[in-house]
């Protein structure tokens, strides 16, 4: 017989839990691939390769940065709820990437101190992929014109520093805001509002693509769109999301399922709500698309419906989900129009995450008003189980704190990068395409002909290292 220190850590439930999170984590990485497909359908062919390379790098850098210390910061709230001495220092000691709980296999960790060690370790990978999606979404703002280095730095800071801080405050059940009543099931504050705020600052400072919003003599106008590829990406994103979303909670054997903020819920109800949100978003987005004769919201309407309901999928009924999700594409369309009027070249990330996320975060407080939330299992005092209630006021507070942190941090980091390494490639590089500028991958004959038709031969551009 094999001898292990704590055989109770090798339970069947622990195995099933890890497999469940493994599926959710893998599915979440599919969302990164989906974003790559979406963007590759929106850029010129001469920048498709670089779009994929930058996106994958941004995703992996953001994810790894989260695991260095961000996951440990998130665990701080639970140490506080459990009365662990020096809760922040202990969380950092245990759960940073080189910490005590990552240096040992589960059966070497005392279940009294680290109950469900395998599950908690697998949640580290889950956090990594959530942060990776943040990096992938941020990259989408600078497609065809952003330098690689500043995008890598932005992804690292967003995924490894700012996202963990906001997650500690708003995502969980024992953080300062979530314990008081701010409710967030999927991560609308720590992910979507963060990305939307940073995207707004980045899109403003980096400027529009050449020819995208005004005539440019050396381009052939806005990038030709292969919306079929983008639609495939949107479809893959819808397929990828259910398992990660179900992972945003706790399943307690013989008791039930609870959302991450300890709201009483059910996995079947969450799954139904998600696909109801897709359906309502498709209906609302389709109506807007046909009226405006622009197909974008028909393609992304289901995602807009989901974002609108992301904070409340665990506490809504299907009818409530349907009604809330109908407003998601409307909020997104308002964002698209606003960005256009401001002359900011981003009609995807900011409208969907900042405008749609703001609508969803606040409306959840009204729809789920009075639902019990917060605290911790067997918690006492200010951390008593479900001692708080969801209210509009705490949703607004969570929104205000998140957007303030995100906008301020985004402004500081983007301006620093702009003044040092710069944000944008040269005009010559952008016209030639980032594939040849970074990778010596020549543009297709169609692209050469397109540029030539617009303004004659483009100047030769040599190989350029990442800068």
Automatic annotation (TrEMBL):
Keywords: Membrane, Transmembrane, Transmembrane helix
Annotated InterPro entries: NH4_transpt_AmtB-like_dom
UniProt-listed GO biological process terms: ammonium homeostasis
GO MF annotation list: ammonium channel activity
Residue stretches making up the Ammonium transporter AmtB-like domain: 19-438
Transmembrane feature ranges: 12-35, 56-74, 120-139, 151-173, 185-206, 227-252, 258-283, 295-313, 319-336, 348-369, 396-417
Assigned GO CC terms: plasma membrane
Keyword Chaperone found: no
PANTHER family given in the database record: AMMONIUM TRANSPORTER, RH50, ISOFORM D
Name of the protein: Ammonium transporter AmtB-like domain-containing protein
């Amino acid at each position: 017989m094999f001898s292990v220190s704590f055989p109770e850590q090798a339970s069947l439930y622990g195995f099933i839990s890890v497999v469940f999170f493994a599926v959710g984590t893998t599915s979440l990485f599919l969302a990164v691939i989906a974003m790559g497909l979406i963007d590759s359908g929106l850029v010129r062919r001469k920048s498709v390769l670089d779009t994929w390379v930058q996106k994958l790098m941004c995703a992996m850098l953001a994810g790894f940065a989260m695991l260095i210390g961000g996951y440990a910061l998130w665990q701080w709230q639970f140490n506080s709820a459990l009365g662990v001495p020096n809760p922040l220092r202990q969380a950092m000691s245990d759960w940073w990437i080189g910490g005590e709980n990552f240096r040992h296999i589960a059966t070497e960790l005392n279940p009294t101190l680290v109950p469900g060690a395998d599950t908690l370790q697998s949640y580290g990978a889950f956090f990594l992929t959530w942060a990776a999606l943040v990096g992938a979404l941020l990259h989408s703002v600078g497609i065809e014109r952003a330098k690689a280095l500043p995008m890598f730095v932005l992804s690292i800071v967003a995924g490894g520093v700012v996202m963990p801080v906001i997650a500690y405050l708003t995502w969980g059940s024992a953080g300062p805001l979530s314990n008081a009543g701010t409710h967030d099931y999927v991560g609308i504050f720590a992910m979507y509002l963060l990305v939307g705020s940073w995207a707004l600052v980045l899109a403003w400072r980096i400027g529009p693509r050449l020819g995208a919003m005004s005539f440019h003599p050396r381009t052939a106008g806005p990038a030709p769109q292969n919306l079929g590829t983008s639609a495939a990406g949107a479809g893959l994103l819808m397929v990828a999301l259910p398992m990660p979303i179900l992972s945003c909670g706790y399943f307690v054997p013989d008791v039930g399922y609870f959302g991450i903020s300890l709201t009483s819920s059910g996995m079947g109800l969450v799954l139904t709500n998600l696909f109801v949100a897709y359906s309502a978003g498709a209906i609302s987005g389709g109506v807007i698309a046909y009226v405006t004769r622009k197909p974008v919201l028909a393609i992304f309407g289901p995602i807009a419906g989901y974002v609108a309901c992301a904070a409340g999928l665990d506490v809504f009924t299907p009818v409530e989900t349907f009604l809330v999700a109908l407003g998601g594409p409307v909020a997104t369309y308002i964002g698209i129009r606003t960005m256009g009027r401001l002359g900011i070249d981003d009609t995807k990330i900011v409208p969907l995450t900042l405008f749609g996320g703001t609508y969803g975060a606040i409306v959840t407080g009204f729809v789920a008003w009075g639902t019990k939330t917060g605290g911790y299992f067997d918690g006492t005092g200010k951390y008593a189980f479900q001692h708080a209630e969801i209210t509009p006021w705490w949703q607004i507070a969570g929104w205000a704190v998140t957007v303030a942190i995100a906008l301020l941090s985004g402004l500081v980091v983007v301006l620093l990068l702009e003044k040092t390494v710069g944000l944008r490639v040269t005009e010559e590089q952008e016209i030639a395409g980032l594939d040849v500028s970074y990778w010596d991958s020549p543009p297709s004959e169609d692209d050469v002909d397109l540029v030539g038709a617009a303004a004659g031969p483009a100047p030769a551009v040599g190989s350029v290292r990442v800068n």
